[in-house]
Amino acid sequence: MSAPKKVVLAYSGGLDTSIILKWLQTEYGCEVVTFTADLGQGEELDPARRKAELLGIKPENIFIEDIREEFVRDFVFPMFRANAVYEGLYLLGTSIARPLISKRLVEIAEETGADAVAHGATGKGNDQVRFELAAYALNPDIKVIAPWREWDLTSRTKLIDFAEKNQIPIATDKRGEAPFSVDANLLHTSSEGKVLEDPAVDAPDYVYQRTVNPEDAPNEPEFIEIGFEKGDAVSINGEALSPATLLTKLNELGGKHGIGRLDLVEGRFVGMKSRGIYETPGGTILLEAHRGIEQITLDRGAAHLKDELMPRYAELVYNGFWYSPEREMLQAAIDHSQHHVTGTVRLKLYKGSARTVGRWSEHSLYSEAHVTFEDDAGAYDQKDAAGFIQLNALRLKLLAARERRLKG
């Protein structure tokens, strides 16, 4: 790969990406553009601007953007229409943020005339795959630089030495080994590494950042109502909210009640298993609510097909194939299924759990006249079930008769 002339770097303002910024300048002698995304990680972004300026980045080459609404509306909500869960448990909080970051990196490269993008993902993880597959899907000619796969800064000591030699400010708490690494956005927090690497050892309480311990959550349950339109949540307790505002509110409610904690050993796309501690308070409530409204508005055949498609969809998101034709095909089918997924769900939030306790909709397929134990006034003729059972039993009878005949 020829040396890049201008690189757009996914920049957090932290020590690692600041070292990458300086390394790009010294290794390639190239101009660097920084992109810092507000995805709801809960951190001030002005320090990232000041750090970039301190490292010699021109003001016009510093991009700091609030993309929370786009994140929830165009990435989180479509994924939740699918009820996507990876390996039965993980709500894909890190995975779903990467295609949006890559999208903006590529767009900013186009706007600024840059010929490359760069990220700070390591060579052991999934994120390198997600960033790069997305970038290539959006611009097949873009160069992607992954410093962790190129440089010789293979230890914390070497990173600190490089920072000191290049006058990169180092926070006091960064001189030692961090107890674990954190990735956060509006959907979740992800913690892994160091004190969490032994899957046999309980995660320390200080790892959790967004949720109270369920044992310490309020002793009284809280009931909320979430309104849906065509599969997307649009209101809480009757108040219409934007996508990002709604998820923020659900995070507050879930965190207060200790909802959404997950200790998971997952199979990474690159082959190894890793242990992560995830907190997805709002997403856990949202998934329960979405399934609740689907229970009365989605036909059985469509619902069961969705559940068959879901693991494949979740795997595509996890592995970084958001912009693949197969994910888009699945999305089209899923979105079609949501045309009547409109109504309201009532949930009980209590000590780590979010449970559906009521649901209603003008689009409901639920017929009390058909399921009642009382007189159904002719809505359902129970005699019809006899023929239904006989037809479905025919092949089973033939199989059983053959077995009996061969044994005899």
UniProtKB/TrEMBL annotation:
Q: Where is the Arginosuccinate synthase-like N-terminal domain?
A: 6-169
Query: Which terms in the Gene Ontology molecular function aspect does this entry carry?
Result: argininosuccinate synthase activity; ATP binding
Swiss-Prot/TrEMBL keywords: Amino-acid biosynthesis, Arginine biosynthesis, ATP-binding, Cytoplasm, Ligase, Nucleotide-binding
Q: Which CDD domains match?
A: ASS (cd01999)
Q: Which reaction does it catalyse?
A: L-citrulline + L-aspartate + ATP = 2-(N(omega)-L-arginino)succinate + AMP + diphosphate + H(+)
Q: What class of enzyme is it?
A: ligase
Q: Where in the cell is it found?
A: Cytoplasm
Arginosuccinate synthase C-terminal domain location is 180-398
Pathway(s) where this gene product acts: Amino-acid biosynthesis; L-arginine biosynthesis; L-arginine from L-ornithine and carbamoyl phosphate: step 2/3
Specify the domain of life of the species encoding this protein.
Bacteria
Q: What is its EC number?
A: 6.3.4.5
**One annotated GO biological process:** urea cycle
Q: Which residues bind ATP?
A: 10-18, 37, 120
Residues reported in the UniProt entry to bind L-citrulline: 90, 95, 126, 130, 181, 190, 266, 278
- The entry's L-aspartate-binding residues are 122, 126-127
Q: Which Pfam families match?
A: Arginosuc_syn_C, Arginosuc_synth
Q: Which GO CC annotations does the UniProt entry carry?
A: cytoplasm
- What HAMAP family does the record tag this protein with? Arg_succ_synth_type1
**According to its UniProt record, which protein family does this protein belong to?**
Belongs to the argininosuccinate synthase family. Type 1 subfamily.
Task: Please give the subunit comment from the record.
Answer: Homotetramer.
What is this protein called in UniProt? Argininosuccinate synthase
Source organism per entry reads Roseovarius gahaiensis
Gene expressing this chain: argG
